[in-house]
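Before relying on records like the one below, remember that each one covers exactly one chain. Contacts with other chains, cofactors or solvent are not represented anywhere in the record.
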Amino acid sequence: MLRILLVDDHLVLRRALRRFLASEYPGARFGEASNARQAVKLLVAGRWDLVLLDMSLRGSGGLEVLRQVRRRRPGTPALALSLQPEHLAGLSSLRSGASGFVAKHSPPEVLVSAMNSVLAGGTYFSPDVVKLRDGGKGKSRAQASGLL
Protein backbone atom coordinates (compact mmCIF):
# COMPACT_ATOMS: atom_id res chain seq x y z
CA MET A 1 0.00 0.00 0.00
CA LEU A 2 1.38 3.38 -1.03
CA ARG A 3 1.75 5.93 1.79
CA ILE A 4 2.03 9.62 0.88
CA LEU A 5 2.65 12.46 3.31
CA LEU A 6 1.21 15.77 2.06
CA VAL A 7 2.88 18.83 3.58
CA ASP A 8 1.36 22.19 2.68
CA ASP A 9 0.05 25.04 4.80
CA HIS A 10 -3.05 25.47 2.62
CA LEU A 11 -5.86 23.11 3.57
CA VAL A 12 -7.68 23.50 0.25
CA LEU A 13 -4.57 22.48 -1.68
CA ARG A 14 -3.88 19.48 0.58
CA ARG A 15 -7.45 18.28 0.15
CA ALA A 16 -7.37 18.80 -3.62
CA LEU A 17 -4.07 16.94 -3.88
CA ARG A 18 -5.40 14.14 -1.74
CA ARG A 19 -8.53 13.75 -3.86
CA PHE A 20 -6.59 13.88 -7.13
CA LEU A 21 -3.91 11.46 -5.94
CA ALA A 22 -6.48 9.03 -4.52
CA SER A 23 -7.92 8.75 -8.03
CA GLU A 24 -4.46 8.25 -9.56
CA TYR A 25 -3.25 5.83 -6.89
CA PRO A 26 -6.25 3.79 -5.71
CA GLY A 27 -5.73 2.36 -2.25
CA ALA A 28 -3.06 4.90 -1.31
CA ARG A 29 -3.02 6.15 2.27
CA PHE A 30 -2.38 9.79 3.10
CA GLY A 31 -1.09 11.82 5.99
CA GLU A 32 -1.41 15.59 6.12
CA ALA A 33 0.68 18.25 7.81
CA SER A 34 0.18 22.01 7.68
CA ASN A 35 3.54 23.02 9.14
CA ALA A 36 7.09 21.80 9.70
CA ARG A 37 6.47 20.62 13.26
CA GLN A 38 3.52 18.44 12.24
CA ALA A 39 5.43 17.14 9.23
CA VAL A 40 8.42 16.02 11.30
CA LYS A 41 6.13 14.42 13.91
CA LEU A 42 4.32 12.40 11.22
CA LEU A 43 7.57 11.61 9.44
CA VAL A 44 9.08 10.08 12.56
CA ALA A 45 5.88 8.29 13.61
CA GLY A 46 5.29 6.38 10.39
CA ARG A 47 6.73 4.89 7.24
CA TRP A 48 6.13 6.97 4.12
CA ASP A 49 6.80 6.02 0.52
CA LEU A 50 6.81 9.66 -0.58
CA VAL A 51 6.68 13.13 0.96
CA LEU A 52 5.06 15.85 -1.17
CA LEU A 53 6.41 19.05 0.29
CA ASP A 54 5.52 22.72 -0.22
CA MET A 55 8.84 24.57 -0.21
CA SER A 56 7.13 27.80 0.91
CA LEU A 57 5.75 26.54 4.21
CA ARG A 58 5.17 29.23 6.79
CA GLY A 59 7.39 29.04 9.82
CA SER A 60 10.45 26.83 9.51
CA GLY A 61 9.86 26.36 5.80
CA GLY A 62 10.11 23.53 3.37
CA LEU A 63 13.89 23.42 3.31
CA GLU A 64 13.96 22.62 7.02
CA VAL A 65 11.44 19.82 6.54
CA LEU A 66 13.51 18.53 3.64
CA ARG A 67 16.62 18.50 5.87
CA GLN A 68 14.67 16.56 8.50
CA VAL A 69 13.48 14.03 5.91
CA ARG A 70 17.10 13.47 4.81
CA ARG A 71 18.34 13.22 8.41
CA ARG A 72 15.57 11.14 10.01
CA ARG A 73 14.34 9.08 7.05
CA PRO A 74 17.17 9.14 4.49
CA GLY A 75 15.56 6.55 2.23
CA THR A 76 12.26 8.40 1.94
CA PRO A 77 11.95 10.37 -1.30
CA ALA A 78 10.70 13.96 -1.08
CA LEU A 79 9.13 15.71 -4.04
CA ALA A 80 9.22 19.49 -3.65
CA LEU A 81 6.35 21.70 -4.83
CA SER A 82 6.37 25.48 -5.11
CA LEU A 83 4.78 28.54 -6.64
CA GLN A 84 8.22 30.16 -6.78
CA PRO A 85 10.06 30.16 -10.12
CA GLU A 86 11.94 26.98 -10.93
CA HIS A 87 15.28 28.75 -11.09
CA LEU A 88 14.87 29.63 -7.40
CA ALA A 89 12.91 26.86 -5.71
CA GLY A 90 13.83 24.03 -8.06
CA LEU A 91 17.55 24.54 -7.77
CA SER A 92 17.49 24.97 -3.98
CA SER A 93 15.33 21.83 -3.72
CA LEU A 94 17.81 19.84 -5.78
CA ARG A 95 20.77 21.13 -3.77
CA SER A 96 18.98 20.35 -0.49
CA GLY A 97 18.37 16.72 -1.36
CA ALA A 98 14.89 16.64 -2.85
CA SER A 99 14.22 13.73 -5.17
CA GLY A 100 12.39 16.05 -7.51
CA PHE A 101 10.69 19.37 -8.04
CA VAL A 102 7.34 20.27 -9.62
CA ALA A 103 6.10 23.82 -10.03
CA LYS A 104 2.56 24.17 -8.68
CA HIS A 105 1.42 25.67 -11.99
CA SER A 106 2.38 22.43 -13.81
CA PRO A 107 -0.31 20.24 -15.36
CA PRO A 108 -1.46 17.36 -13.14
CA GLU A 109 0.15 14.84 -15.52
CA VAL A 110 3.55 16.33 -14.70
CA LEU A 111 3.01 15.73 -10.99
CA VAL A 112 2.02 12.10 -11.65
CA SER A 113 5.02 11.59 -13.93
CA ALA A 114 7.33 13.09 -11.31
CA MET A 115 5.82 10.94 -8.58
CA ASN A 116 6.17 7.78 -10.65
CA SER A 117 9.80 8.57 -11.40
CA VAL A 118 10.60 9.29 -7.74
CA LEU A 119 8.67 6.27 -6.46
CA ALA A 120 10.68 4.10 -8.88
CA GLY A 121 13.89 5.34 -7.28
CA GLY A 122 14.70 8.05 -9.79
CA THR A 123 14.56 11.82 -9.72
CA TYR A 124 12.51 14.44 -11.51
CA PHE A 125 13.73 17.94 -12.33
CA SER A 126 12.86 20.11 -15.31
CA PRO A 127 15.49 20.64 -18.00
CA ASP A 128 15.84 24.25 -16.81
CA VAL A 129 16.75 23.19 -13.26
CA VAL A 130 19.24 20.61 -14.51
CA LYS A 131 20.79 23.21 -16.80
CA LEU A 132 21.22 25.60 -13.86
CA ARG A 133 22.75 22.83 -11.77
CA ASP A 134 25.20 22.07 -14.53
CA GLY A 135 26.28 25.68 -14.93
CA GLY A 136 24.31 26.39 -18.09
CA LYS A 137 25.19 23.22 -19.98
CA GLY A 138 22.07 21.67 -21.44
CA LYS A 139 21.01 18.12 -20.72
CA SER A 140 18.63 15.89 -22.61
CA ARG A 141 14.99 15.70 -21.59
CA ALA A 142 15.57 12.09 -20.46
CA GLN A 143 18.36 13.17 -18.14
CA ALA A 144 16.29 16.04 -16.81
CA SER A 145 13.23 13.95 -16.06
CA GLY A 146 14.74 11.37 -13.82
CA LEU A 147 17.38 9.48 -15.69
CA LEU A 148 20.20 11.75 -14.47
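The domain at 3-122 is CATH 3.40.50.2300 (Rossmann fold).
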